[in-house]
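Milestone 3.1: sequence recovery, worked example.
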């Protein structure tokens, strides 16, 4: 039997790498861990080194050692908790940019329709808007290479269009009613990302602020929105955190500080190491320490959203309305690795001011943890508060003595059941495809004059999506393999009209316009409007 011989370099390389890694970890472990733990760690590292060396040297097929190690890292972290994670060097930059408040790029909101990148909207003040890119433009070439019809993904688009400020990317645009491609040389620039997506006055005294994530600039955006709304007469605040998955803990603390009085506890965290233990309190004069507050949450509100909701609830400063939040009470520390990858390691649990840990159980496995929404749906929790059972051993008290519970999310003070009467599988398929986007872009392009000079107030109060428009949408849906369903359509017709009207408002005006329309059918929002007397009573408790 013949045997493939390895060169000396092939044999030495994995050994050198493994020894280098082992040495670094061993040195750290020697000074950080008790002796018994050090011995266990050294033994485990040596075993890992042995296995990698044997695989690299003797395995029957060639292997990519880096891919193997990254796979092993992901599996290893999966044994810890659902939120410790490893992000490859390729994805780390993109992941960070989602929270940093700005990125370098050409400044477009894009979609992929029938394997072609199209411009949903050029971002205000960005280089694409300044050069004249329009909604509906199709990006056919990038730097001379055809990208249409190539199976392009969202990740590919980020790689192609983002880049250092000042660098140039050449794109070829196909525009409706234009025979030839239009060439643009776009100089990339800093593109701001906004996390306060809506801010408006509901009536003469109630202001509404929607936060979609907690990023580097969120506190600054929130404070600016507060000042703007106060200037318009706001005396009551509705803070919408529905579907907000969280983000930077510091942003959540600063936002809570704007609403809570000085010295009020906001959140604490405790880890295995004492250096990770800390307590955050309100320290500065806030922009909205007086006036009633209602916070909207649901099953998609997590992490930093729960810090804000828990802080206001435990201090009896805000009425929490909606459905039980997600239940993420673990703190991740981002650790930059030498190759540009990032490790996000859970280093502590956080606790609300009353002492609650709101982390839901995760011992039954990652799959079950990820299916929590469907489990809640199946058990009826999204429709009835009575289906939610709390352990009496996890009972806590707010500042005024109200009972609250830990062990799995923030339970609202006022429960609002999920309304599924309007939705249907047909509408879900329409909005799961790109049919609705294609319809709106085409319709607005053909009917530009209809909306010239139309104020949003007039649009919101009087504009109606016609049956003829819906019939056209149905045709576009069928072209995108969404088969028409008469029964579902009849059930969801009013709902569908509001969805289309809201998305048209976003194209015609801005994100605030979208939320003002969609909130007309948001059951949590509508119920909250009726509860400001209760919120005012809560705010007056000493």
């Amino acid at each position: 039997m013949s045997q493939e011989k390895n060169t000396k370099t092939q044999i030495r390389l994995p050994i050198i790498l493994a020894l280098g890694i082992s040495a670094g970890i061993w040195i750290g472990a020697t000074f950080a861990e008790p002796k018994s733990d050090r011995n266990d760690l050294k033994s485990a590292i040596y075993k890992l080194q042995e296995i990698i060396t044997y695989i690299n040297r003797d395995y029957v097929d060639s292997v990519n050692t880096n891919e193997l190690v990254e796979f092993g890292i992901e599996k290893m972290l999966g044994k810890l908790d659902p939120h410790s994670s490893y992000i490859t060097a390729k994805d780390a930059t993109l992941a960070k940019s989602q929270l940093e408040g700005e990125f370098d790029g050409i400044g477009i909101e894009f979609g992929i329709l029938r394997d072609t990148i199209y411009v949903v909207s050029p971002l205000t003040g960005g280089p694409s808007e300044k050069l004249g890119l329009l909604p509906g433009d199709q990006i056919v070439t990038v730097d001379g290479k055809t990208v249409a019809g190539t199976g392009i993904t969202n990740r590919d688009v980020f790689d192609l269009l983002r880049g250092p400020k000042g660098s140039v990317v050449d794109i070829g645009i196909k525009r409706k009613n234009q025979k030839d491609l239009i060439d643009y040389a776009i100089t990339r620039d800093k593109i701001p990302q906004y996390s306060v997506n809506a801010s408006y006055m509901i009536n003469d005294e109630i202001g509404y602020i929607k936060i979609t994530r907690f990023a580097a600039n969120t506190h600054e955006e929130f404070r600016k929105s507060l000042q703007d709304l106060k200037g318009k007469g706001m005396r009551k605040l509705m803070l919408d955190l529905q579907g907000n998955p969280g983000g930077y803990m510091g942003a959540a603390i600063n936002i809570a500080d704007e609403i809570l009085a000085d010295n009020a506890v906001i959140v604490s965290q405790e880890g295995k190491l004492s250096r990770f233990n800390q307590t955050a309190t309100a320290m500065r004069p806030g922009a909205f320490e007086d006036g009633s507050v209602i916070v909207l949450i649901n099953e998609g509100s997590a992490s930093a959203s729960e810090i804000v909701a828990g802080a206001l609830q435990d201090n009896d400063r805000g009425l929490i309305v909606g459905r039980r939040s997600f239940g993420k009470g673990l703190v991740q520390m981002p650790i930059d690795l030498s190759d540009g990858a990032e490790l996000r390691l859970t280093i502590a649990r956080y606790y609300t001011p009353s002492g609650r840990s709101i982390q839901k159980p995760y011992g039954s496995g990652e799959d079950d943890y990820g299916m929590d929404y469907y489990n809640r749906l199946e058990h009826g929790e999204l429709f009835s508060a009575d289906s939610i059972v709390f352990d009496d051993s996890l009972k806590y008290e707010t500042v005024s003595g109200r009972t609250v519970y830990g062990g799995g999310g923030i339970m609202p003070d006022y429960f609002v059941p999920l309304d599924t009467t309007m939705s249907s599988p047909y509408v879900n398929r329409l909005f799961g495809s790109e049919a609705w986007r294609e319809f709106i872009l085409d319709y607005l392009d053909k009917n530009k004059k209809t909306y010239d000079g139309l104020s949003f107030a007039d649009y919101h109060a009087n504009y109606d999506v016609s049956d003829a428009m819906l019939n056209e949408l149905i045709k576009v849906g069928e072209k995108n393999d969404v088969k028409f369903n008469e029964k579902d359509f009849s059930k969801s017709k009013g709902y569908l009209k509001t969805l289309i009207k809201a998305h048209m408002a976003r194209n015609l005006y801005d994100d605030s316009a979208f939320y003002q329309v969609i909130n007309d059918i948001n059951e949590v929002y509508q119920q909250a409007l009726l509860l400001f007397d209760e919120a005012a009573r809560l705010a007056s408790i000493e």
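Residues 425-524 form one domain. DSSP finds 20 helices and 21 strands in the chain.
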